[in-house]
Amino acid sequence: MLEIILASASPRRSKLLTQIGVTHKVHVSNVEENYTEGIDPKVWVKDIALLKALEVAKFYKKGIVIGADTIVVKDGFILGKPEDERMAMKMLEFLSGDTHEVMTGIALVNAKDPNQSYTHVETTKVLFRKLNSLEISNYVNTKEPMDKAGSYAIQGVGTLFVEGIEGCYNNVVGLPLNRLAQMLKRFNVEVLNVHNN
């Protein structure tokens, strides 16, 4: 099987790949995730994922490089990772009692031929219940929100705020596994076959 390289520093993405039996190497990309005003969030998150994969692909002669980026979008605003606790609290206040979208851009690049690449943006709708200021403060004090897009982790304590989701759960964690498995088939990689080897 072709070597799989994950171009991401996210331990959650690596854990998700391990969960479905995909052996992989982690090679963090140096692409900066600076949003430019006026760009469609879907276009931006897809472009960042592709840039990450292409940047890491330069270091390999063969293999499949997976680039991914996750953002939270509400009312046209992109919520990335908070810079500090104050920003985390403001984001959670903004998300409170309403629905937002979580978008993950995925890019698969053939290191042998970087022109062979596939991209996709997966979107999941997440409904937050109404939060009070004490809940928000207590949650931020756990430090969990500090490296998460939108300042929460659905797979952690942040799940207490989620009333419902529409779409892929793993997408909110950071990597839509169903979609990824379908994309890997384009490189003749069958995820389920990994378990039979």
The radius of gyration computed from the alpha-carbon positions, rounded to a whole number of angstroms, is 17 Å
Mean pLDDT, all residues: 93
SS-based class: alpha/beta
Number of helical elements: 6
Low-pLDDT stretches:
none
**What overall geometry do the principal axes of the alpha carbons give?**
elongated
Q: How would you characterize the largest beta sheet?
A: 7 strands, mixed
The oligomerization state is: single chain
Spatial gap, N to C terminus: 10 Å
Protein traits:
197 residues; alpha/beta
Brief description of this entry?
This protein is α/β, with parallel strands linked by helices. It contains 6 helices and 7 strands, in the order E-H-E-H-E-E-H-E-E-H-E-H-H. Strands 1, 2, 3, 4, 5, 6 and 7 form a 7-stranded mixed beta sheet that branches.
Please tell me about this protein's structure.
The chain is an alpha/beta fold and 197 residues long. The chain has six helices and seven strands; from the N terminus they run E-H-E-H-E-E-H-E-E-H-E-H-H. The protein has helices at residues 11-19, 41-57, 85-95, 133-141, 169-173, 177-184, and strands spanning 4-6, 25-26, 64-74, 77-79, 99-110, 117-128, 162-166. Strands 1, 2, 3, 4, 5, 6 and 7 form a seven-stranded mixed β-sheet that branches. Helix 3 (85-95) packs across helix 4. The longest helix has 17 residues, at 41-57. The termini are close together.
